[in-house]
């Protein structure tokens, strides 16, 4: 028997706790299930203990990813118990977020083929362009590219009304926001296009602001010439894939972009900062979004009289995202998030950069810890 706990053995007891599981390095290594993953999730489902999967991964629609995870883990999952890196972006298209970008022209970066464009359109964004569209329309914008990688996924650009500002002489899109949905596949092309837009006049591709690095500018991050806002879905510098050493993630791309941006503009020494809107673990925005989805899922599982969710055990392999996020999260509904670090992913031993409540071997031990705490 797993554990002699009242909760696990008495179906009438509605647990006031739940689990949040990171995926890469906790349940999977790339697409290979880790040994205890199926056993652990099955046990929790048998005993009606709620959990969600909270990942900085992405690049597929929530439904596609959940279908794939259900098959890989041999557990029945659905989107009500799943949050991935760009899931909160949907609020920027449905009017529930801080801004409404639904009909704005957004450059969606990252992911394979044009999957992320289709995800963005599935969220409700109506005016999505991709680097493939741009490089196919303007091959000279980046000389070092394999055009045949982009052609099949390109759509014709809808030129903006080219104002009287100088431009490249072509009708070009006016980009209002840049959104990195998933790890970029062509860092060089994507960095070039993002830099072009961050230095542009008002997001008009092919223009160049003359306000660069003006130290008289109010220091509000950008070059103050109407450039587009930048959104990232995942800050992970490293993550646990199938290779035995951690791999660069979207945070690595951000570091490369910032390096080029600072080299061109003079960076902070020149009173110019790369301003970004960050999502993904460990940000508060993503943990609050996840807690809300977990609460809805728990109510669906346990009924509306399930009582208050008092504690959540965040099980992760990355101290910089999973552990830091849970440690720093202050729930607006008062639940306590305890961080549990596993040794099956990025973390390999030693003093972690962010101290978890406990360090255990794997996801099975993590659930034993949580159930033990709940008695
Ligand atoms: O892109 C995946 C990587 O950033 C880590 O994902 O599941 O460990 O949060 P995860
Ligand atoms: Mg992980």
Name some characteristics of this structure:
5-stranded parallel β-sheet; 375 residues; binds magnesium ion; disordered N terminus; 15 strands; 14% strand; binds SN-glycerol-3-phosphate; alpha/beta; single chain; 11 helices; elongated; 6-stranded parallel β-sheet
3D structure, described in words:
By secondary structure, the protein is of the alpha/beta class. Helix content is 31%, strand content 14%. It contains eleven helices and 15 strands. The protein has helices spanning 6-9, 37-46, 62-73, 115-123, 131-137, 147-150, 187-198, 250-265, 284-302, 319-328, 363-374; strands at residues 17-21, 28-29, 32-33, 51-54, 82-83, 105-109, 127-129, 177-180, 229-232, 238-239, 247-248, 277-278, 311-316, 336-342, 358-360. Strand 8, helix 7 (187-198) and strand 9 (229-232) form a beta-alpha-beta unit. Helix 7 (187-198) crosses helix 8 (250-265). The longest helix has 19 residues, at 284-302. It is elongated and about 65 Å long. 47% of the residues are buried. Mean pLDDT is 91; it is low at 1-6 and 161-167. Bound molecules: SN-glycerol-3-phosphate and magnesium ion. The site of magnesium ion has 10 residues, from loops. SN-glycerol-3-phosphate is lined by residues 22-25, 55-57, 183, 234, 236, 239, 249, 318.
């Amino acid at each position: 028997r797993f554990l002699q706990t009242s909760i696990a053995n008495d179906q009438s007891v509605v647990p006031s706790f739940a689990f949040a599981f990171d995926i890469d390095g906790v349940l999977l290594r790339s697409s290979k299930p880790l040994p205890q993953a199926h056993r652990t999730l099955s046990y929790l489902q048998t005993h009606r203990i709620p959990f969600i999967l909270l990942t900085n991964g992405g690049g597929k629609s929530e439904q596609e990813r959940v279908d794939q995870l259900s098959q890989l883990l041999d557990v029945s999952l659905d989107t009500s118990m799943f949050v991935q890196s760009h899931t909160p972006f949907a609020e920027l298209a449905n009017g529930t977020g801080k801004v409404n970008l639904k009909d704005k022209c957004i450059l969606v970066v990252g992911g394979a083929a044009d999957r992320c464009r289709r995800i963005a359109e599935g969220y409700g964004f109506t005016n999505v362009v991709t680097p493939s569209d741009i490089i196919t329309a303007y091959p000279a914008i980046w000389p070092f590219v394999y055009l045949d990688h982009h052609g099949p996924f390109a759509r014709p650009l809808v030129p903006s009304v080219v104002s009287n500002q100088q431009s490249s002489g072509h009708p070009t899109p006016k980009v209002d926001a840049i959104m990195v949905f998933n790890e970029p596949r062509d860092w060089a092309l994507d960095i070039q296009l993002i830099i072009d837009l961050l230095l542009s006049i008002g997001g008009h591709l092919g223009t160049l602001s003359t306000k660069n690095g003006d130290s008289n500018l109010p220091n509000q991050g950008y070059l103050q010439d109407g450039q587009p806002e930048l959104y990232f879905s995942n800050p992970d510098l490293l993550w646990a894939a199938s290779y035995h050493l951690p791999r660069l993630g979207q945070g690595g791309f951000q570091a490369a972009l910032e390096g080029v941006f600072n080299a061109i503009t003079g960076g902070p020494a020149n009173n110019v900062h790369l301003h970004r809107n960050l999502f993904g673990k460990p940000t508060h925005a993503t943990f609050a979004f996840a807690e809300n989805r977990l609460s809805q899922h728990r109510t669906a599982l346990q009924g509306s009289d399930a009582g208050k969710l008092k504690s959540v055990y965040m099980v992760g392999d990355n101290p910089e995202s999973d552990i830091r996020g849970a440690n720093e999260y202050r729930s607006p509904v008062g639940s306590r998030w305890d961080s549990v670090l596993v040794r099956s992913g990025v973390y390999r031993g030693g003093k972690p950069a962010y101290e978890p409540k406990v360090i255990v071997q794997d996801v099975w031990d993590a659930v034993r810890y949580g159930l033990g705490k709940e008695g």
